[in-house]
Specification:
29% of the residues lie in helices and 19% in strands. It has a four-stranded antiparallel beta sheet with strand order 1-2-3-4, sandwiched between helices. Strands 5-6 form a two-stranded antiparallel sheet. By secondary structure, it is an alpha+beta fold. InterPro entries: Ub_conjugating_enzyme, UBC, UBQ-conjugating_enzyme/RWD. It comes from Polypterus senegalus (Senegal bichir).
Length: 161
């Protein structure tokens, strides 16, 4: 509840939050801003996309365990957004999570990683309208965590952006 009140006090309109089905443990978060010099921001302007909609589900023991976060719309390519809208960010894993993180801080980190990972709005015919699914996102996230636990979380070379 405290997190929700803090977000409503944000003056910069960076994000806005609505409870999903009046459930305090599930939020739909609208990310209104990414770096205005990025290709993603340009895509958002060209496609009249006002925000990136995410769904965040909090575990019972939050903030001691990370929330599950996924992109709902628009369909994105790259930017560390994978199948089902799963998000590849170490801080969303039990190993990378800190109970000191706020939802605002996580969203700011996500916005930065979208740009760093050269995220773009998908415009491929047939694919761009296909909705992300929660089941697919959960399976993808579980798989990526397993891969990173085995091989580590490495930063891509500078040449990769």
């Amino acid at each position: 509840m405290k997190e929700l009140q803090e977000i409503k006090r944000l003056a910069d309109n960076f994000i806005s939050v609505e409870l999903a089905d009046d459930n305090l443990f599930e939020w739909n978060v609208k990310l209104h801003q990414v770096d205005k010099d990025s290709a993603l921001w340009q895509d958002m302007k060209e496609t009249n996309t006002e925000y990136i909609l995410l769904n965040i589900t909090f575990p019972d023991n939050f903030p001691f365990s990370p929330p599950f976060m996924r992109v709902l719309t628009p369909r994105l390519e790259n930017g560390y957004v994978l199948d089902g809208g799963a998000i590849c960010m170490e801080l969303l894993t039990p190993r990378g999570w800190s109970s000191a993180y706020t939802v605002e801080a996580v969203m700011r980190q996500f916005a930065a990683s979208l740009v760093k990972g050269q995220g773009r709005i998908c415009r491929k015919a047939g694919k761009s309208k296909k909705a992300f699914s929660r089941k697919e996102a959960e399976a993808t996230f579980k798989s990526l965590v397993k891969t990173h636990e085995k091989y580590g979380w490495v930063s891509p070379p500078v040449s990769d952006g």
